Amino acid sequence: MGDAFKDYAAGIAAGIATVLIGHPFDTIKVNLQAKDANKRHGPLHVTSNIVRRDGVRGLYRGASSSFLGVAAESSVLFGCYSQIKGMLHPSKEGDAPYSAIIPAAAVAGASVSLILCPTELVKCRLQMQDRESRAGGQRKYNGPFDCVSKTFKQEGLRGFYRGLSATAIRESLGNVCFFTTYEVIRKYMTKVLGGRPVGAPRVGTHSEPDSYLAMAGQTIKDIAVEGTTGIVSGGVAGIVFWAIVLPFDVMKTRMQTEQAVGAAKHGFFSTFHMIRKESGISGLYAGLSPTLVRAFPANAAAIVAWELAARALYENRA
């Protein structure tokens, strides 16, 4: 089994973990960001309404498309990042420099935007249709496949890439911040806590992954360092990602859900000015609290899943 396949397969595990932990927070965020959202209501009120109306399963509205989309996105993101970083820093001596981390993260982020844009469009429209039905309309979509079919009939293939510009900026800039933060914290914590976490340091380096093969000899301290480092580095990196790129995410959500609520279509800059005119700069940070609350556990889970999956795959040298 080639190293490239292992890197991409480990990314799928990260995506599944992200959706399981983070999708409910994402549903709340989308409801807060949408055009007809009631600005007086906060995340707790929105959560209460969703659970009261549809139960906990309502928080996973659109999750089926997310599982497919995020699994594919994470596979490309982590796989591309690992492979490009490995090509830019082929030596197994020391940690990768920023000259390898930053371009690898930027290219990986730009690549996944092509996958994320259509899948997030379907997810956002499914998450928003409950509010539309409460306003007197009927449900437009019976599920993700119905949403795909109707979007294609009404808007064509281009309709699935509404908000691509905002998505691409969010992913490129955001993942540079994410992976840089992750690598810095991982390096620092490993140095301070001692030991060496088994996982990401060897992913994508195309070297003999000694650390993966040393699992049997791990001490309790090694396991504790590994788990703590993955949780903290992934969680903090996720918070940094969203704190920086949330305005682009708000713009993306508005661009993707306008057609669903019958609003006029707007481009990148017109959407920015529209949000600023309606709600001020604070409107670009709609959904900030559930996004940041989601960021730590979802990204911590993603990093831990990625590192564990990579270790398991690299241990199997068949």
TrEMBL record:
Membrane topology classification: Multi-pass membrane protein
Which GO MF terms are attached to this record? L-ornithine transmembrane transporter activity
Keyword entries, A-Z: Membrane, Mitochondrion, Repeat, Transmembrane, Transmembrane helix, Transport
GO CC: one term? Answer: mitochondrial membrane
The organism's superkingdom is given as Eukaryota
Listed InterPro entries: MCP_dom_sf (IPR023395), MCP_transmembrane (IPR018108), Mitochondrial_Carrier (IPR050567)
Pfam families assigned to the protein according to its UniProt record, in alphabetical order: Mito_carr (PF00153)
Q: Name one GO biological process term.
A: mitochondrial L-ornithine transmembrane transport
Q: Where in the cell is it found?
A: Mitochondrion membrane
User: Where does the record place its Solcar repeats?
Assistant: 2-87, 96-188, 225-312
- Ranges that cross the membrane: 230-248
Tell me the protein family, please.
Belongs to the mitochondrial carrier (TC 2.A.29) family.
Tell me what this protein is called.
Answer: Mitochondrial substrate carrier protein
Write the lineage as a comma-separated list. Answer: Eukaryota, Viridiplantae, Streptophyta, Klebsormidiophyceae, Klebsormidiales
